[in-house]
Design brief:
Helix content is 24%, strand content 27%. The chain is α/β, with parallel strands linked by helices. It binds NADP nicotinamide-adenine-dinucleotide phosphate (NAP). NADP nicotinamide-adenine-dinucleotide phosphate binds next to helix 2, helix 3, helix 6 and strand 15.
Length: 335
């Protein structure tokens, strides 16, 4: 029996190259009442993340593509509004994978209850969620910065990059950001406490980066690829580590882009390691303990870019792929 009207944003078609609004469709449908063991969640926040570009394509990846004609996939923070599962009560706030819709049914598997008194619940999608954990495991497990070393990260004002640089500082390293535009660069230095930030939209990136990294680069946390990677590569020191986290500049490319110079990988004995945050699921307790404490005490700061209304999700997501977001991009779906 229908209890509420659900608004959903479906993946209507798969893009070839950069996605557009035509790839999405807003529909309204009745919500089914939960069956035995199920709960109904009302979405409060929907997380918009770069990996969603990959889910829109049918190309082989580490995760299944989103299905055409189904709601786009995505992590959500929601409120339980109906429950036929003894583990969840009406009113519980949960982290789940509800997708781009106002209401989502769940068997309860994979839901995690949140304590609104411990931290704003939106942080479970950002600094204390998947992006924060990506920064934590990528930097500590693969980058392994030592005191006095130089760590460089691009998309430095974003969900992952902002945490990478602040963690590098906590480890005693120099943190150099790369970001798009004057305001983001100022924020990265003045608010987040990085040592410097270089604007990748201005010319002569390598030269300006070299000035910011007089001792070369020991850890390059790879978030973007493309032209930024080309500028960073010559500055890597011997034995530098490159956690390969993301390549957002290349997600919509229709032909292969030039990759890093493999001869320098040999000559400088570089360590490149790709990773998916879920590879380090066993570290979640350490992450929540350490970063949770640093967020509570103000040692790690975070910025959210909150867009109002589910119908704004497609345009906001397209903006993310062009650097229009400033901080962790969230959609407030319900109050
Ligand atoms: N491996 C994993 O498990 C994992 C998990 C989470 C995220 N990631 C990856 O981490 C990276 C950052 O994700 P996030 O969630 O923190 O996103 P975000 O930084 O909050 O937002 C994306 C940012 O990427 C930058 N960007 C977009 N297009 C670019 C281009 N062509 N060249 C240079 N920069 C560009 C923009 O920042 P500027 O305006 O500053 O350039 C944009 O604001 C992404 O590549 C994502 O796929 C990987």
């Amino acid at each position: 029996m229908a209890t509420n009207t659900n608004r959903q944003i479906l993946l209507k078609s798969r893009p070839d190259g950069p996605p557009s609004l035509d790839n999405f469709e807003l529909v309204e449908k009745p919500v089914r009442t939960p069956g035995e063991g199920e709960v109904l969640m009302r979405t409060l926040y929907l997380s918009l993340d770069p990996y969603m570009r990959g889910r829109m394509s049918a190309a082989k990846s580490y995760a299944k593509p989103a299905a055409v004609g189904e709601p786009m996939v995505g992590a959500t923070v929601g409120e339980i509004v109906q429950s036929r599962n003894p583990k969840f009560a009406v009113g519980d706030i949960v982290l789940g994978y509800g997708g781009w819709q106002q209401y989502a049914l769940s068997s309860g598997g994979g839901l995690r209850k949140l304590d609104p008194a411990a931290a704003p619940v939106s942080t479970a999608l950002g600094v204390l969620g998947m992006p924060g954990m990506t920064a934590y495991v990528g930097l500590t497990e693969i980058g392994q910065p030592k005191s006095g070393e130089t760590v460089v990260v691009a998309a430095a004002s974003g969900a992952v990059g902002s945490v990478v640089g602040q963690l590098a500082k906590i480890k005693g390293a120099r943190a150099i950001g790369i970001a798009g535009g004057y305001d983001k660069c100022r924020f990265v230095v003045d608010e987040l406490g990085f040592d410097a930030c270089v604007d990748h939209r201005e010319p002569h990136l390598t030269r300006r980066l070299e000035a910011a990294c007089p001792n070369g680069i020991d850890v390059y946390f790879e978030n973007v690829g493309g032209a930024v990677q080309q500028a960073v590569w010559p500055l890597l020191n011997d034995f530098a580590r490159v956690p390969v986290c993301g390549l957002i500049a290349q997600y919509s490319a229709t032909s292969p882009m030039p990759g890093p110079d493999m001869f320098s990988v040999l000559r400088k004995r570089l360590l490149l390691r790709g990773f998916i945050v879920s590879d380090f699921a066993a570290k979640q307790g350490d992450f929540l303990h350490d970063v949770g404490e640093w967020v509570r005490t103000g040692r790690i700061k975070y910025r959210e870019d909150v867009v109002e209304g589910l119908e704004q999700a497609p345009a906001a997501f397209l903006g993310l792929l062009e650097g229009k977001n400033f901080g962790k991009l969230l959609v407030r779906v319900g109050k």
